[in-house]
Every structure is written in C-alpha cells, then in structure tokens.
Design brief:
Strand content: 15-25%
Distance between the termini: 36 Å
Number of strands: 11
Number of helices: 15
Radius of gyration: 20 Å
Helix content: 40-55%
C-alpha cells in the first residue's frame, strides 16, 4: 500500500473536505443512490465495487447513519445519463467507463488516448500520482470529482470473424462508444466504426447491425456477448478505466466525518479493486473459452496498429482542451507528448 494513501491531511490539502454543518436531525440516515449499467453477478466489477463501498461506509459510520441503494443494469438509464443525473443531484454516485465521462469533463480524454497505458501498473501510477489534479479538472469542467478508480483490463476486439492483422479489420463494422477519440482510432485503422450506447450493443450484434465491438474480457462475459460473437483479438490500444463519480456540491454539503469516510472508502476500494482485477480477468478468460470463444491473440502487426493510433493524438488535443492531465501523465510515465 502506498505511503500516506489514506491520510486525512492529503484529503484536506486536496480541498475536498469542507467543514459542513450537521443536518437538522443528525440521526437522519444518509441515502446514497448509486447507479451503474451492469447486471450484478459474481464476475461483475461494478457490483463488486458498490458492495465494497457500501460495506466500508457502514463499517465507518454505522448502518443507522448511511446506506447505499444500488440501481444496476441501466435501471436509471445509460452511463452518460447517470453522469448527468449525478451532476443534477438526482443520483449521488455512479461508476462508468471513463470514455463516457470524458464527454462531460474533456480533460479526462487523457485516459482515452490510444496506447497511453502499456500496463495496468502505468494506469495505477498515473492515478495515484495525479489524483488531486484529475479532480481539480473534473470539478472545474463538470462539478464532479472521482472518489475511486478501477480498471477492467484492456479493451479487446470481439467479432464475428477472425482478426489476426490490421487488414482483417477493414471489412468489420465495429461498435464503439460515442467517443470521438475511440471513433478516430478505428478510422485510423481503416474501418468505419458505428457509435452506439452499450445497452443497445447486444441487440445490434444479434441483428447483425454491427459485426463486432470492443470491451474487456470481464464485460464480454458479464454481458453475454459470447452468445452473438465468436472471435477475440487482443490489441492493447486502450485500457478500460472507470471512476466512481460524485457531485462535489453534494459531497461538501455532508458532515465532515461523512465526507472523510466517503473519500477514505473510495481510496481503499481503489486499492482492493486492483487485486480483484487479475482474478476476474482470469476467470472471464476461462469462462469464455468454455463458451466456445476463439482467442486469436495479439495482432501479428500490432506495431502498425500502435503507429496509426498514436499518430492521431495531436488532432484531439483541441477537444481535450486543457492538457494538464495529459502532460502530467507523460511526466509520470517518462515519455514525451506526441506533437
């Protein structure tokens, strides 16, 4: 565990804990509506994350003082809708893919740049060393902050036909999130992506509106994409990453000890989810093999995939607008910003 991870001093310095008055009736239970898009299961990271957060908050504050209500499986709407509901105070928390959050906080586009993270550890290091900066930009751009982060592994291509090299991808219609950077990556690879919400993807694959999609192994398993797709190719262009997002005004309206408990629970959950990732990814890989999926491995020409993908970075700097996070990540990783 990294030194000083949970110190109250660091939270105060980050400006996230404000001294807020206690509610008129301090005994009133604080209800937290926490929405996400996944169907709860033993393999589902979203559900695991909600459970960990809930257990930690009850342990810190007591079940009579705080309660998390889980709204899974897109009951509230898409991930984008849930983010907006947090902004508007309809929800208190949501967890979502960062590529859906960057629509509302453009600086988070740093996480969407292809091949920015070559390993999960690089992502962990960038988040740990730049936590306060990330939240500073999120608050300025969207009125939200991230209280936890997690990864689900690299997004991989799941398609109706084998893809072993870049040329094999050209005729495949791939569903992508409605994220300009991710759309740009597939266009750089010579195919025409189809932007679509996650909750529409299974039916689109089933009805052959699209030929494939990309997601981590865990997501392919929990969303049952193995029923409508057969082949998996494993480029390492984008690590799936996602924050747990809260409205900063709501957070600061809470009593100081509740704010502290929420922030500490988020940091602790971040660390514990790292240990869970390897287990869930390995279990998902074996599960998908049992379901008959064919793993085609890493593309034989991934150097070309990387070259084309990284070449588009500069064209998206204006969309990201503020490059503080990108530049900070480059410093953490010891690399130069592509120009």
């Amino acid at each position: 565990m990294r030194k000083g991870l949970f110190t109250l001093l660091s939270l105060v310095c980050a400006g996230l804990i404000w001294a807020a008055p206690a509610p008129a009736n301090a005994a009133d239970k604080i209800g937290i509506r926490f929405a996400h898009s996944n169907t709860p299961s033993d393999m589902d990271p979203y559900h695991a994350l909600v459970t960990k957060m809930s257990d930690k908050l009850v342990k810190k504050l007591g079940a009579d003082r705080i309660e998390i209500q889980e709204f899974p499986a897109g009951q509230i709407g898409s991930e984008e809708r849930s983010f907006q509901d947090v902004q508007q105070g309809i929800l208190q928390m949501t967890v979502l893919a960062v590529n859906n959050a960057s629509i509302f906080s453009p600086s988070l586009g740093a996480f969407d740049l292809p091949y920015i993270f070559k390993s999960v550890k690089e992502f962990d290091d960038c988040v740990d060393q730049n936590w306060d900066l990330i939240n500073k930009r999120m608050e300025a751009e969207s009125g939200t902050v991230a209280i936890a982060w997690h990864s689900q592994g690299f997004r991989i291509t799941n398609s109706k036909q084998p893809v072993a090299k870049l040329a094999d991808l050209a005729p495949v219609k791939i569903r992508t999130p409605n994220n300009p950077i991710m759309i740009g990556v597939y266009r750089a690879w010579g195919t025409d992506p189809v932007p679509m919400a996650m909750d529409e993807t299974f039916n689109a694959l089933q009805q052959k509106v699209v030929d494939g999609q990309d997601n981590p192994l865990v997501s392919i398993a929990t969303n049952r994409f193995y029923e409508v797709q057969k082949y998996i190719t494993e480029p390492h262009y984008k690590l799936w990453t996602g924050p747990v997002v809260v409205n900063v005004d709501w957070l600061r309206s809470l009593p100081a000890d509740v704010q502290q408990a929420i922030l500490e629970a988020g940091r602790e959950t971040t660390v514990e989810m790292r240990a869970l990732l390897d287990k869930q990814e390995s279990a998902s890989r074996e599960f998908l093999k049992e379901k008959g999926m064919v793993f085609c491995g890493v593309p034989t020409d991934e150097d070309e995939w990387m070259k084309r993908a990284v070449s588009i970075w500069p064209q998206f700097y204006p969309q990201i607008k503020n490059l503080e996070i990108v530049e900070a990540f480059m410093k953490t990783l010891g690399r130069q910003l592509p120009r």
